[in-house]
Amino acid sequence: MCMLLSISCTRKRCRLTHIHAHDTPRRMGRKKLWAERVHVTLAEGVKDRIKAALEPGEDSLDLIRDAIERELRRRDRAKKPDAVPTRNT
Questions:
Q1: Which residues, in sequence order, are bridge partners of residue 6?
Q2: 8-state DSSP, 53
Q3: Which value, in Å, is the radius of gyration of the alpha carbons in the chain?
Q4: Which of 10, 13, 61, 81 has its CA 20 to 30 A from that of 68?
Q5: Quick one: which of 77, 73, 71 has its CA closest to 85?
């Protein structure tokens, strides 16, 4: 860290001011993990079912994201002409 001094003078008095200048530039926050937002309206009771299905320490949004990814992969496999149905575990 480097410290600079600034002298500011007015008509009646001069003042010595400390200005802190850092050797490293300011850092931005972390990059967004989830860049897109989707607002979803759920049927009554689904939110409670999601909460009941959560593993310890799991966030409800993680469960929803995982479910969407699984469904999209399943549909992608179904679109392929040589797709062989597999049992999900």
A1: 17
A2: H
A3: 28
A4: 81
A5: 77
